[in-house]
Backbone:
């Protein structure tokens, strides 16, 4: 049994099958980006173990094809198992081993980057302080208890829990939430429009509003604005039904003497420190409208470490702080904007990537492996040259080069190329 | 260790190990198994959890933080902000903030001006640096001077005293001044220093400019006073109604999208054509950094459309970053101006909503 498994995992057929499947996957995943957009297609075809067939109106799904992660994992196992079976670490093959290990690290690192990294945006105007960034894609339904004098308690329900008809119960929630309707992308209107939906909301300022369901956005510079109709329950007792939407402001719900703000918003990631935008600068080349530099002077305040300092973030000079990297992303600080009476704003891209070092390590390993392999061949070649019998010297040098030694050195270099790229 | 455990477990499960046993127990295979388990954990089928976070209350973006006992005064045309500070003896101190277009004068001239105010002799340039101390003004640093008049009466506490700070920002020289009787200034000095540190210059400047614009009042040649009755209209979704920043404006809406920066829609109504199309277009062009145009070039940036049976002139002006789209509707003797100004992308996204808004207006009978 184990023998069969090992045979299967180490077989070259599996490698070929995986490569063939990945070719098909890249093909359909690329085509799907036209309709589904880059982000959705990546999530569905490449950042998944299984690709499911999910008809729009159905509440079932059917697995149809292996996803990118599955193919990657099987390939990785295949590579590792084959190495375990066929490859012996010898001094001679140390370089090749390092190259392969580097490649494996690169693959694994990329997988973990996909799984663990997070990108969000921090947009603030001059003078504003923020201790959170907002996700580019994800949303959350939050209940905010503002009753404490110095702090707010935020209960966050991930958007993935908002499904038509689902009931959300949790010990952290002050009440149970039933989701009547959920639209992943929508607009809200005060008047009825073609295709707009009248909701069954009974409470809040938005109870008479209409929801206009919209298809998911496919452009990278736009995002979906979800809406949901939710009914709140105290045990079995209904408190009321609200329409919440990413385009609506927070609404207040009173329950047992506590006011909660309820809002569907872009998912926020809070940090234990705050950043204040001191100055957003949009420099231009003198006498032209060509942008020269975008920079944000930012103040970091961390109460835990009692840190309070200023930093300048500009293009190619991100701030690395608290396990996050802050890149200068967007800016609205043009003179014309300021003349129009708008406060300059700056947006930083906030990246959390705990595995950011793996590509560097992998490249170092591959590089070292190549150097080791090359040096061993070079040293071997030089040794051979030195040990060449003196008897050969009377021959004509031209003849020697062209006739005898050249093929052997070509063979050497040919060998080394094959080894390095295998 | 792990390999021994695995061997034992596999044997317990009835698997016979191959004689070499090398493949199953070798490090790469163990690594693969560990990777599968790790991946299972990371991408498990469990629902995403509901989380609770407690965060400090959000700080508002204020222009400054002043002590409670400072009473804000009606801002004058020159001052960005000013306070009177009464004490129990009826003495009054004053704090004022004065923004001036960036001055190209030496520090000595500024200091001597103040010295003159409190009756001190002018000083020399060398002494200025000795008299100055550095102070934090918002995120920047400025010079602070503490000047007291020579003793005039029996009570030195009543000598006039000025604590003043200034700094040169990009385009503005900011003056901050605390004046009053000596003892009083002494008491208020720490609060003044805290006030200086709390100042948000960008916000202060913006508030000042807005107020100054509002105080400048309506444009000349405006004809009969407009009627202030608001017509009926349909406000597009996503527009937030705000307080008009000027007495000239009837309504204002802020528009925010995820596409680009914010934009603002304002509505105003003027008599006599509000000065004419060319004058207004050139005024708007100036606001977004475009050069003025001549009357014959007007047609390039305007088009007309129907608004509830009335003719609406639509002007579209694109600056480098900001953009203005304005609708002008003549109703009887009155001219209505609808102006959307802000980030170009937002205006693109809101164009149809803006036109629907202008078309939705039902004017009162007298226009």
Residues:
């Amino acid at each position: 049994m184990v023998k069969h498994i090992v045979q299967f995992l180490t077989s070259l057929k599996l490698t070929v099958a995986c490569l063939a499947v990945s070719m098909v996957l890249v093909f359909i995943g690329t085509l799907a980006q036209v309709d589904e957009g880059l982000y959705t297609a990546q999530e569905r075809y490449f950042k998944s173990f299984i690709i499911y067939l999910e008809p729009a109106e159905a509440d079932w799904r059917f697995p149809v094809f292996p996803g990118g992660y599955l193919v990657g994992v099987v390939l990785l196992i295949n590579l590792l198992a084959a190495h375990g079976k066929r490859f012996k670490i010898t001094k001679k093959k140390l370089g090749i081993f390092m190259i392969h290990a580097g490649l494996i690290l690169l693959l694994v690192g990329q997988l973990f980057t996909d799984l663990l990294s997070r990108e969000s945006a921090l947009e603030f105007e001059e003078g504003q302080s923020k201790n959170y960034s907002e996700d580019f894609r994800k949303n959350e339904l939050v209940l905010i208890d503002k009753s404490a004098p110095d702090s707010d308690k935020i209960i966050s329900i991930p958007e993935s829990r908002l499904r038509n008809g689902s009931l959300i119960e949790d010990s952290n929630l002050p009440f149970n939430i039933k989701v009547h309707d959920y639209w992943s992308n929508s607009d809200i209107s005060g008047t009825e429009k073609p295709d707009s939906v009248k909701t069954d909301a009974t409470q809040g300022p938005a109870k008479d509003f209409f929801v206009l369901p919209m298809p998911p956005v496919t452009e990278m510079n736009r995002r979906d604005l979800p809406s949901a109709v939710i009914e709140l329950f105290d045990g079995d007792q209904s408190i009321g039904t609200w329409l919440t939407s990413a385009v609506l402001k927070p609404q207040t719900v009173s329950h047992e003497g506590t006011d909660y703000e309820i809002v569907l918003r872009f998912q926020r990631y809070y940090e234990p420190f705050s950043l204040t935008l001191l100055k957003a600068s949009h420099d231009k080349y003198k006498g032209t409208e060509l942008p020269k530099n975008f920079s944000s002077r930012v103040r970091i305040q961390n109460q835990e470490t009692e840190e309070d300092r200023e930093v300048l973030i500009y293009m190619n000079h991100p701030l690395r702080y608290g396990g996050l990297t802050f890149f200068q992303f967007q800016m609205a600080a043009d003179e014309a904007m300021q003349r129009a009476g708008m406060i300059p704003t700056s947006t930083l891209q906030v990246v959390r990537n705990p595995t950011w070092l793996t590509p560097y390590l992998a490249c170092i390993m591959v590089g070292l492996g190549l150097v080791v392999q090359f040096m061993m061949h070079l040293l071997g070649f030089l040794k051979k040259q030195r040990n060449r019998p003196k008897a050969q010297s009377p021959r004509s040098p031209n003849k020697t080069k062209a006739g005898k030694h050249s093929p052997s050195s070509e063979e050497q270099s040919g060998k080394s190329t094959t080894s390095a790229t295998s | 260790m792990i390999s021994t455990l695995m061997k034992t477990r596999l044997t317990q499960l009835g698997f016979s190990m191959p004689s070499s046993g090398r493949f199953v127990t070798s490090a790469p295979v163990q690594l693969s198994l560990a990777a599968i388990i790790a991946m299972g954990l990371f991408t498990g089928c469990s629902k995403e959890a509901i989380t609770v976070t407690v965060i400090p209350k959000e700080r508002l973006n204020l222009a400054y933080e002043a002590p409670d006992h400072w009473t804000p005064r009606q801002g004058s045309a020159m001052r960005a902000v000013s306070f009177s500070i009464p004490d129990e003896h009826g003495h009054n101190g004053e704090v004022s903030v004065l923004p001036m277009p960036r001055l190209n004068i030496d520090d000595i001239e500024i200091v001597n001006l103040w010295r003159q105010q409190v009756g001190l002799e002018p000083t020399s340039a060398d002494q200025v640096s000795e008299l100055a101390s550095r102070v934090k003004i918002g995120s920047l640093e400025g010079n602070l001077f503490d000047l007291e008049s020579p003793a005039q009466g029996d009570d030195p506490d009543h000598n006039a005293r000025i604590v003043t700070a200034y700094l040169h920002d990009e385009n503005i020289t900011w003056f901050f001044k605390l004046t009053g009787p000596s003892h009083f200034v002494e008491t208020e000095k720490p609060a003044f220093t805290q006030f200086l540190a709390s100042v948000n210059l960008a916000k202060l400047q913006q508030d000042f400019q807005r107020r100054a614009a509002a105080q400048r009042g309506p444009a000349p040649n405006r004809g009969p006073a407009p009627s202030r009755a608001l017509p009926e209209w349909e406000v597009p979704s996503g527009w937030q109604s705000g307080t008009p920043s000027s007495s000239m404006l009837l309504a204002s809406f802020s528009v925010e999208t995820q596409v680009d920066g914010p934009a603002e829609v304002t509505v105003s109504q003027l008599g006599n054509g509000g000065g004419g199309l060319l004058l207004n277009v050139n005024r708007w062009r100036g606001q977004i950094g475009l050069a003025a145009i001549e009357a014959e070039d007007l047609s390039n940036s305007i088009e007309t459309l129907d608004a509830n049976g009335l003719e609406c002139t639509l002007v579209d002006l694109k600056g480098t970053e900001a953009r203005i789209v304005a609708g002008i509707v003549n109703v009887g003797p009155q001219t209505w101006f609808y102006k959307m100004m802000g980030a170009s992308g937002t205006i693109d996204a809101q164009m149809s909503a803006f036109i629907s808004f202008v078309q939705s207006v039902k004017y009162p009978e007298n226009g």
Observations:
- Chain B touches chain A through 66 residues (CB under 8 Å).
- Chain B has a mean pLDDT of 76.
- The first helix of chain B runs from residue 2 to 12.
- Residues 221-360 of chain B form a domain with the Jelly Rolls fold (CATH 2.60.120.1690).
